[in-house]
Each structure stands twice: as C-alpha cells, then as structure tokens.
Inverse folding.
C-alpha cells in the first residue's frame, strides 16, 4: 500500500508540570496518517490520547507543554510555524472535533454565528453564501435549518455534538482530527456519525485522525489503527492486521474485551492503568502482561515492523 | 402569545414592586419604632437649635394630621402612601416652610450627574482594561497593574477623597477643595459655568472613578482568567479565529454577564459611598443635604433621602435586570 | 463525604496562594497592633497636653502629636482595636444571621425561599450608611454593642445570598442523594455533609461582612457619629479633618488611620481572593493550584 502521507508525527512528547512532578502524558509517539484514510488511535482512558491530539494541533495549554518532537503536515512543520501561519492553516486544512463537545460552543452566540465565523475567517464567501453552506452542513448531519437560529443551551448534547461535527467539516479540510466524536451519542446517532465520517473519506477524500477507546467503533470505519498505552504507541497496523492478527499482548487483551452477541467470555485486562507520574520501567505494560520476561522489566521495546505496514513494540518480537 | 421575555420582565417587575413596598414600609415604620416620641424629640431639637420655634405650631398641627397620631396605624400607613404618590414628603424642619421635595429636587440633579457618569464610565473603563490585563501574556506589567488596581479598589471613596483633597487642593493647589462651582458665578447655561462645574466636580469624580475602575478591573481580569480554561475558547482557537476576535466575542462577551449582575449588586454601596464623598467636598448634591439634615436633626429630609436612595438603587437594579437578557440569551429560558 | 483532606493539607494549600499569604501579612499585623498594642502603651500618652501640640513624628512620639497634645500612635492603637472589634462582632453576627437565612432559603426552597429572598433583597437595597445615620439620629446615645448590632443588621444579606446559592448547588449533588438513600436524617446531612463544604465560603463571607461593617463604621466616624466616649479609626479621621489637619498640613495625624484602614481592607480582600483561588474549582484548574 503505497500511499501518500499527509501527517507525520515524530517522537512527540507532551508533558505537564505539576507540583508533584512531571506528568509524561505523551512520551515519544510517532505515527503517520495517509491521504484519504481514516487513521484510528485506540487505548484506555488516561493513556494520553487527548493530550496527543492537543499536541498535534498545537493546542496544549499550561501547565502542559510540548517537550520535543515534530509534527509535519503536508510537508510543513507545525510546531515551529509562526502563529499567524498556523492560524491560517487551522480549520481550512486541519479541523478539530473536541472530546466532550458539550462545552465547546460559546453560550452567548447563536449557532449560526459560531459556524459562520469559522467559515468566513478562512474563505471569501459572502455572508449569505456562508449561511447556505452552513445549513447544508447541518442537514448533512441530520439537523434542521432552524438550529442555526438557536442558542447552544437550547440543544441537546447530541445535537451540540453534531453542530460541532458540521462546523468541522464545513470547509472540507484535508485532515479532521476527531477526539471521541461518538462517545456521548446514542447508538443510532453513533452509526449515522460514523457513516458520515467514512463518507468524508470516500466522497471528499478527507483524512480523519479518529480517537476512541471503543474498539468496535474503530472496527467499523478505520483503515489503519494505532494502539496507545501509557503515553506510547505499542502497535500500528491495518484494521485487519489489528483485529484478525493482533500481536501485542495489550492489543490482544483489548480485542478479547470487546463484547459481542454470542461471545460467552469477555475478558478484561487485569490490573490498573499506570500513572503518568511514574511510568513502570522497561516496557510499560509489563506489570499487567501475561508474557512478561526479564528484559521487559528493564528495556523499553521500540516499534519494529514485523510485516508490511504492521509495527509492534514488544520484546516477544525482535 | 406570551413570549418568555415578557414573562421575565413581568416577574422582575413584580419583584421590584414587592421590594419597593418593603423599603417604603420600613421607611414608614422607622420613626414609629424608635424609642421615644419622635415628635417630641423633633420639637426639642428645634428648640435647642433655633431661636424659638418658628412656625412650630404649624408643624405640630401638620404632623398630628400626617402622623395621624390619634388614628390607628393602618390609616396612618394609607395616608403616608397617598402622600408619597402625590410627591409630598412633608415639610423640612431646618428650612421650614420649604417642603422636602423642593430641597431634594434642587440637589438630585447634581448627584445623579456625578453618580451616573462616574458609575458608567468606571464600569466601562474598568472592564475594558480588565480584558486586556487578563488576556495579555506580559506577566510583569499585568502583575503591577493588578496590584495597583487592587490597592485602589479597597479604599473607600471618601478616604481617597480626603487624600486627594489633601494632595491636590492644599499641598499642590491645582483643584478647588469644594463646592459645585465657583462662588462668583451664577448658575446658568454658559460655558463659563459649565467649565466651572466640571472643574469642581473633577476631584469628587476622581475619588469615585479611581476606586471603581480598580474594582472592575480586578473582577474582570479574574473572570477572563477563569474563562481562559473553558472548552469553547479552545475550540475557537482551533477554528483558527483571530486572537482579537476570540478575546472579544468569546471571552469578553461571556465575562460581561457576571459583571452586569455585579453592577446591579454594587449599586447600593456606590450610592452610599458617593453620598459621603459629596459631603467631604461640600458638593451640592444629596449627600451634603443629608449631612446638613443630620446636623439639624431634620428627620423628614433624612428619611426622604433614605427613601430616595433606596428606591433609586432599586430602580437602577431593576433597569439592569431588564437589560440583562440582552447580553445573556440563557436567562429567559431558565427558571430564574 | 467527609472532607478528605486533613487540616494540615488545607493549610498547605492555602499557603500556596500568593494572594492569601499577602493578605495574611497585611491583616495579621493590624490584628496584633490592635490587640497586643494596648499592652505596650501607657494611658498617659493620650491625656490632653501630655506632649507639646502638633509635633511631627519623633522618637518620643513615633507618629507625632495632635492639636491638643496627645500622642497619635497611642490613639491609633486604641482606635484600631475598637474598629477591629466592631468589625469582628458585626461581621460575626452578620454571617451568623446570613448563614441561617441563606441556608433555610437554599435548603427548603419553594415559597419559603421566595419570601426570604424578597426580604434579603429589601435589606440589600437599603444603603447601609444612610440607614445607620438615620437611626443614629433618632437614638441619642449610641453604645458600642448597639452599633455592632446595627452594622450586623445590614451585613447579613450578602452572606445570605451567597450561602443560599451554595446550598442550592450542593443540594443537587449526588453525594447528598447518596446520604439520603443511606438513611441519614436531615440534621445529619446538614451537619456532616453540607456544612463542611460551606466552610471556605463562610470564610470569604466573613471577610466580606467584616469589611462592609468596618466601611460603614468608618463612614459614620468620619462625619462624627460613633460610639460615644471612645475612639475609632473613623472618628480619628473625623477629628483630624475637623480640626484642620488638612489645612495645617499635619499629615502624621491624618495618614496613619487611613493607612491602617487600607491595610485592613486590603488584607481582608486579599485573603478573600486567596480563598477563592483555592476553593473555586474553575479557578483552580487555571491557576494550577
């Protein structure tokens, strides 16, 4: 699969300064997203997925800070770009669907004002054209035109989420970064939104960086998937690689834990997720890994390609 | 068809009437609750303060009628209300036979002029400065401005007034120490008069302004700081909006809401403080009248001033309440 | 949900706030000066003509003397003590009343809440200073306890409002429902669950009530009204202005009480801001404390 890359993240580290020490939330993450693909990042809560997203988008706020790393988008290094250049790229080329979109809408502005300001900031559309555009977008996510005149507090959580999604895809960006976009929705809505996301890729050639802890959602729409654990990526592969041939013990655990009709045993992964203040030495998964060996306690494994496009960081595979 | 806005206004109006009635009733009850006979006390005061009781008989007759001391309390209350509605606040004791309402009418324009301008100006200036201070990244400058503003904001107006009078009216004589206008000018709509008025009102206005701006700056700044952590600001930044747009439409608009409420709540304190400040400058407003009435134990004037101050504060708060839905679209739809 | 932090932990948190520490540094010295100071001054210093008149500050009289020859430092200390006492008592009574009313309004809700809210609004609207002046005009002799009660009667509405909104938001929290389901009686819920969470707000309300009461007292003193036979900071300023300190340039008479007032108010305000920084969840996220 020789595809062109649109996003390349190299050894990104995002830390938080706290009074108890440094939270190493994202500790050396590298991956690449190709054009016209949905790339998923999966992992438990607290593994650093949201921080990773904030780092990629350069939206990290104190006490967090980007310690080191590179984020190359369409050939441009984002982390060292001057602010004004970055602002121009934002939304038009990369858009963002934040986690918990409930609070991402400005309470004192009407929906149309909030959708319009993003559209008009990055295009030459007149206000009328932009309005039509916005109402088309809303229809695409299943919301009536009247929503434009409403205020956020008049909408339900799911409706707010869909407004955010509509706003995010309005300018047909090249990359959409979606952080848990369907977590707060009911099953029917989830399906509709997931379909729209897949549609973005199929019809408009948009790439999507899709963050979720729900493996089933990943199975539905992603092309390639990375598994994140304790601030690091432990496995990357196509969706078939991961689901049919999981290699890393953590990945295997995640897949075994997916409930489905007919499955009698749902195994959860024993133990608790470690704290970002003090990651376990060596391989961070070793305290919970059924195959842990001596090297696992001392040496950190690095990502190695075990078959075409399938990478894993585990001492079992050298 | 009942719109939620109308329902909201009606609700606030009913609230206004209830509270106004409460204030009026308290004003009515006050002299009657005080130990001793207020009439006798008044007469005693008049005797000691003036040379003989001029027109004392007329006052007593008037009061017997007004207080209706031979009638029951409810009739008295009704009489009181009737008189209030017709604008009759009784005669002044120290300036008999001038009715109280005439005395008040002369001084109210001065006070309203001073209060209105300083309150509105300081609120606007303080809030705008507060946004910039809260938003900016220049830590050192911010820190200094914040500390200075905080320092000013806790000084009572009249204390600052004293300091200003001391510094600028006596030590460095560039401002007059009192009065509403120069003694030798007659009140008329001439440029000379207006200039003199402005010149004389500068120090009193400044005492209120400096303190109030400090206060609003501090509160707006801390609001902006707390809003900086809100999700919708992050999203606005992700949308690639210009910083100024985010600062104004997203941060400022939201921070304004509690500031408007805060304005309504602080009116009582502003009025009180302003009255005392006036007195220090012998500014011909309600405050000076009040103080003179106090010295002469002119209860009618004092009560009238108290009533006016209370109702004025209430009225202003009511107006702000009505205007609040303009800034906060959520309010009409909440249970309030 | 008992308070999961011990007292020392709370103390450590408070000390981390620069505002709180600054406030303590300004307020506590005033407290010490006012309450311990009287032990160090002899009553002779405030006798009339104890010293020559209108002396600027010197070693013997660190704050100089006034126009009838009394030592100003001694006056300041005694005035400070009385002003602080008035503030503490009025503030204390004020928040006691305010807490009870605010609590009942917030906890019971409904008609009782409406009625109490209207009463609170009425008292909120009345300008404190005007009201106290009018009442003082009626009462021939104003004693210290009377003044304290008077000031308290107008400082409770602010507390009532804040406590009410706090109680209302606490009432809806899940841990209260949990307590109710586990069979705790109402009184238990009030004392074990709600009150501990109110304590930081009570602290802020007290600082606010005390500031308000002292402001009113100073306002009274300046125009010459105050507890008879005693001296408060307001009265001291009154004497200074009335007897011409401004005209004669006797800044050492006028400025010290003003500076004390500023220190007390600034200190209390900073303590308030510090408490807000620590205990207001939204601010905590941003300041990282």
């Amino acid at each position: 699969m020789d595809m062109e890359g649109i996003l390349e993240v190299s050894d990104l580290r995002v830390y938080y300064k706290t009074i108890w020490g440094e939270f190493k939330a994202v500790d050396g993450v590298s991956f690449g997203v190709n054009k016209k693909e949905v790339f998923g990042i999966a992992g438990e809560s607290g593994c650093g997925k949201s921080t990773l997203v904030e780092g990629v988008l350069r939206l990290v706020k104190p006490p967090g800070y980007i310690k080191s790393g590179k984020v190359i988008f369409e050939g441009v290094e984002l982390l060292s770009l001057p602010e004004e250049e970055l602002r121009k790229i934002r939304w038009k080329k990369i858009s963002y669907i934040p986690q918990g979109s409930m609070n991402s809408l400005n309470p004192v502005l009407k929906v149309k004002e909030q959708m319009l300001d993003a559209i008009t900031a990055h295009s030459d559309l007149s206000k009328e054209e932009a309005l039509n555009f916005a109402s088309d977008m809303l229809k695409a996510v299943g919301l009536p035109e009247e929503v434009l005149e409403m205020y956020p507090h008049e909408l339900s959580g799911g409706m707010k989420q869909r407004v955010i999604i509509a706003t995010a895809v309005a300018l047909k960006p090249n990359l959409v970064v979606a952080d848990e976009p369907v977590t707060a929705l009911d099953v029917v809505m989830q399906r509709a939104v997931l379909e729209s996301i897949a549609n973005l890729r199929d019809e408009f050639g948009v790439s999507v960086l899709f963050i979720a802890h729900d493996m089933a959602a990943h199975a539905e729409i992603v092309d390639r998937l990375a598994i994140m654990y304790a601030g690091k990526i432990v496995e990357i592969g196509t969706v078939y690689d991961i689901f049919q041939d999981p290699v890393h013990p953590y990945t295997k655990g995640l897949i075994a834990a997916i409930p489905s009709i007919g499955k009698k045993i749902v195994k959860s992964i024993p133990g608790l997720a470690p704290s970002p203040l003090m990651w376990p030495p060596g391989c961070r998964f070793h305290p919970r890994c059924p195959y842990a060996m001596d090297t696992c306690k001392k040496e950190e494994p690095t990502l190695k390609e075990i078959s075409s496009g399938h990478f894993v960081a585990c001492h079992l595979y050298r | 068809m009942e719109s939620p806005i109308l329902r909201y206004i009606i609700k606030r109006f009913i609230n206004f009437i209830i509270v106004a009635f409460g204030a009026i009733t308290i004003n009515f009850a006050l002299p009657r609750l005080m130990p001793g006979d207020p009439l006798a006390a008044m007469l005693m005061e008049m005797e000691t303060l003036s040379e003989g009781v001029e027109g004392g008989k007329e006052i007593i007759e008037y009061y017997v009628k007004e207080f209706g001391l031979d009638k029951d309390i409810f009739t008295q209350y009704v009489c009181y209300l009737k008189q209030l509605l017709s604008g009759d606040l009784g005669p002044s004791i120290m300036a008999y036979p001038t009715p109280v309402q005439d005395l008040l009418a002369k001084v109210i324009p001065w006070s309203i002029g001073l209060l209105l301008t300083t309150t509105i100006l300081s609120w606007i200036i303080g809030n705008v400065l507060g946004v910039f201070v809260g938003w900016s990244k220049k830590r050192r400058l911010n820190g200094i401005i914040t500390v200075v503003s905080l320092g000013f904001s806790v000084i009572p107006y009249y204390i600052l007034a004293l300091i200003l009078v001391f510094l600028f009216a006596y030590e460095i004589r560039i401002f007059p120490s009192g009065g509403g206008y120069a003694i030798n000018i007659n009140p008329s709509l001439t440029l000379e008069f207006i200039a003199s008025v402005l010149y004389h009102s500068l120090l009193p206005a400044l005492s209120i302004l400096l303190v109030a701006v400090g206060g609003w700056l501090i509160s707006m700044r801390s609001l902006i700081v707390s809003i900086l952590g809100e999700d919708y600001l992050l999203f606005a930044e992700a949308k690639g909006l210009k910083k100024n747009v985010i600062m104004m439409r997203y941060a400022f608009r939201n921070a304004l809401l509690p500031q408007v409420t805060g304005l309504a709540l602080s009116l009582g304190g502003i009025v009180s403080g302003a009255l005392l400040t006036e007195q220090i400058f012998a500014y011909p407003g309600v405050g000076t009248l009040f103080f003179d009435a106090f010295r002469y134990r002119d209860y009618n004037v004092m009560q009238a001033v108290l009533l006016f101050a209370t109702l004025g504060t209430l009225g202003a708060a009511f107006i702000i309440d009505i205007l609040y839905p303009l800034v906060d679209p959520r309010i009409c739809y909440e249970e309030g | 949900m008992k308070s999961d932090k011990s007292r020392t932990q709370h103390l450590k948190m408070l000390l981390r706030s620069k505002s709180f520490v600054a406030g303590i540094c300004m307020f506590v010295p005033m407290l010490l000066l006012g309450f311990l100071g009287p032990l160090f001054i002899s009553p002779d210093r405030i006798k009339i003509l104890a010293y020559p008149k209108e002396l600027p500050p010197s070693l013997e009289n660190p704050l100089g003397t006034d126009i009838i020859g009394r030592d100003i430092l001694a006056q300041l200390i005694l005035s400070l003590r009385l002003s602080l006492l008035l503030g503490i008592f009025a503030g204390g009574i004020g928040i006691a009343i305010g807490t009870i009313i605010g609590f009942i309004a917030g906890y019971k809700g409904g008609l009782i809440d409406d009625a109490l809210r209207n009463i609170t609004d009425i008292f909120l609207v009345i300008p404190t200073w005007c009201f106290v002046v009018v009442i003082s005009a009626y009462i021939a002799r104003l004693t210290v306890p009377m003044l304290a009660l008077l000031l308290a009667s107008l400082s409770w509405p602010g507390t009532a409002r804040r406590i009410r909104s706090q109680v209302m938001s606490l009432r809806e929290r899940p841990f209260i429902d949990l307590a109710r389901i586990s069979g705790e009686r109402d009184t238990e819920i009030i004392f074990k669950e709600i009150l501990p969470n109110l304590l930081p707000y009570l602290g802020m309300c007290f600082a606010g009530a005390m500031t308000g009461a002292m402001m009113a007292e100073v306002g009274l003193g300046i125009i010459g009204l105050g507890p008879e036979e005693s001296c408060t900071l307001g009265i001291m300023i009154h004497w200074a202005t009335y007897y011409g300190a401004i005209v004669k340039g006797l800044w050492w008479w006028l400025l010290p009480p003003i500076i004390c007032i500023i220190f007390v108010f600034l200190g209390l305000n900073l303590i308030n801001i510090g408490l807000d920084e620590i205990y207001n969840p939204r601010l905590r996220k941003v300041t990282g404390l």
Summary: The mean pLDDT of chain C is 81. Chain C touches chain B through 47 residues (CB under 8 Å). Residues 72-108 of chain C form the longest helix (37 residues). Chain C has one domain: 15-52+63-235+262-287.
